User: What shape does this take?
Amino acid sequence: MLETAIQTFTSPVVLFFVLGLFAAFVRSDLAIPEPIAKAMSLYLMAAIGLKGGVAVSKSGIDATVVSALGAGIVAGFLLPFFAYGVLKTFGKLNRINSGAVAAHYGSISVVTFVTATEILTGQAREPGGYMVAVMAAMEAPAILSGLILARGLGSKSGTQSTGEMLHEVFTNSSIMLLLGAFVVGMIGGEQGFGEVSPFFEAGFKGVLCIFLLDMGLIAARRMIDARAVTWRLGAIAIFLPIVNGLVGTALGVGIGLDTGSSAALGVLCASASYIAVPAAMRLALPEADPGIYLTMSLSITFPFNVLINIGVISAFAAMLTGVNGGIP
Assistant: This one.
């Protein structure tokens, strides 16, 4: 556990995130221009999708891949129900806000997954490429669960029907680019990827560092300005990723995934969406308070996962699979 923690905290991607947090808390004027931040996010999603598709083209689609996809979809649908119960009782939120927040905690954070992949790879626990598909598959089920909990299945959600809202989810730029790049990687294979690998591999870690610097700035500044989140909700924003992460990791090991892929599934279950789901909730549940669900997912859960929980999940996966010292 100690060695895993040291490897996590000495990773440049984590240190750049810490730098962003520090700069915001001391009120530095450091900022990443919005067009550059958007370009970096597009680059990262395209790169991770491509590499995942290439990995699957090499290994093929087998029972392990299908099991991982099934586990991810089921987890994405069921986790919001647990979160809803905690938010409604201990968090003392009303039904609408409980459903909206619960959807975030069943869905995923692409940046958390990319960060975890880099950290796990540095620990010689690289997840299988198919985990990119699992990540994409977990987005919509959680939103559907959140709507069921907040509104009831088949009802009108805001100004859009459930079907129209789900169309927005499936055509979301993040999902489209991830899945599209994944398919491109599968079709092109290793030989095709070799033609573009200098661009997508050489600069990947550097771009991720600067992107996490920006995320640290955003998370800390939103935390400073937060008004709607009580201590109970702050505690839930840490409790849920711990429980979800451990359950997801155990589920991965239980269905026969390797150490890195089990940890990646745990990270996906532990992460909370702060891009796709907030956009969907603004459309589907306009009366829900974004000051609650955005602050919890982006300003509390995201930093906690990057700084602490990824390392905990990695160590837990290693313990369950009998891996020591970061060497499978």
